């Protein structure tokens, strides 16, 4: 199968021309509407980008994170029908799109996702940031962790990639002890939670199950289906996380978006029928007498799983 064509990257000269055109418009609008904070924010960001891309320079990933021109175009300018405002909005959207390519973020994240070590190294050598984020806003390191690619994780971290909590979550789900150990050693937090409020320990206990979050948010309707026991490496992950502060008796409380039912890691092991993980949690001090929000203990979940 032929590979997808590579995205054509705009030159910094053409990018500077877009910035100059947008700056000219926003300065005129500032004269017409003095003190309007939106126009001031746009101008300051455009001036910063002009400086960051001068003389063929690429913005760093950190600099790119500070640019919100695309969001401003959608939220603040979209409903203003004046031709000059609409032209500015279109320019800002184009700048936002081209900025992603100019920094090399799209290229390096695509290479990471494909597991192309040589291409990732080439891009890093060209100055592309190891902390680049792709179109889904996942960093290169997070993608490498999700794919269980230890060589890429090592390379990216040797070039300054930050060990994020999201990378840790995905590495735990993948069940890669080497990556988890490296991330924890570099500052990723064993007690962190994802957007649903799920801590890494729960994923380790469930063997990285894709059914875990649904079960935690609705344990009655979304009971896990019987599967083969998870690989032994997940018990190593449980030990690593507990040694770094994860609580074996933590109750899953959910998030502001949707609350949980107070399910504990031991209840997860019981509900999934993973006896080895269950016994190991007991060894680590898990309390089988804890009740969830439905007054159930692990004994109830073990009966439901049998």
Textual characterization of the structure:
This protein has helices spanning 12-32, 37-52, 61-65, 69-77, 83-102, 105-114, 117-125, 140-146, 150-158, 165-174, 177-185, 200-205, 212-217, 233-243, 265-272, 275-283, 298-305, and strands spanning 252-254, 259-263. Among the domains are: 12-103; 193-305, Serine Threonine Protein Phosphatase 5, Tetratricopeptide repeat (Alpha Horseshoe), CATH 1.25.40.20. It has 17 helices and 2 strands. Strands 1-2 form a two-stranded antiparallel ribbon. It has 306 residues and is mainly α. α6 runs parallel beside α8 and α11 (177-185) runs parallel beside α14. 57% of the residues lie in helices and 3% in strands. It is elongated.
């Amino acid at each position: 199968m032929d590979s997808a064509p590579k995205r054509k990257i705009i030159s910094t000269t053409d990018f500077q021309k877009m910035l100059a055109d947008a700056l000219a418009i926003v300065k005129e609008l500032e004269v017409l509407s003095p003190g309007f904070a939106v126009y001031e924010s746009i101008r300051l960001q455009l001036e910063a980008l002009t400086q960051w891309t001068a003389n063929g320079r690429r913005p760093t990933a950190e600099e790119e994170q500070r640019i919100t021109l695309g969001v401003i175009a959608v939220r603040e300018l979209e409903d203003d029908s004046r031709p000059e405002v609409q032209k500015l909005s279109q320019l800002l959207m184009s700048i936002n799109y081209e900025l992603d390519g100019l920094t090399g973020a799209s290229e390096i994240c695509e290479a990471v996702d494909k597991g192309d070590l040589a291409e990732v190294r080439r891009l890093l050598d060209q100055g592309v940031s190891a902390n680049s984020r792709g179109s889904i806003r996942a960093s290169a390191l997070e993608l490498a962790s999700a794919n269980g690619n230890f060589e890429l994780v090592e390379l990216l971290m040797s070039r300054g990639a930050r060990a994020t909590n999201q990378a840790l979550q995905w590495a735990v789900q993948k069940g890669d002890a080497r990556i988890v150990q490296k991330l924890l050693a570099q500052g990723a937090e064993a007690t962190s939670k994802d957007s649903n409020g799920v801590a890494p320990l729960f994923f380790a206990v469930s063997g990285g199950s894709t059914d875990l979050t649904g079960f935690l948010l609705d344990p009655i309707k979304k009971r896990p289906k019987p599967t083969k026991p998870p690989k032994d490496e997940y018990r190593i992950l449980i030990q690593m996380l507990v040694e770094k502060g994860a609580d074996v008796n933590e109750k899953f409380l959910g998030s502001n978006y949707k609350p949980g039912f107070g399910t504990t890691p031991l209840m997860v092991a019981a509900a999934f029928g993973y006896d080895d993980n269950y016994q190991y949690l007991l060894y680590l001090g898990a309390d089988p007498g804890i009740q969830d929000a439905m007054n159930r203990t692990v004994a109830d979940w073990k009966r439901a799983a049998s």
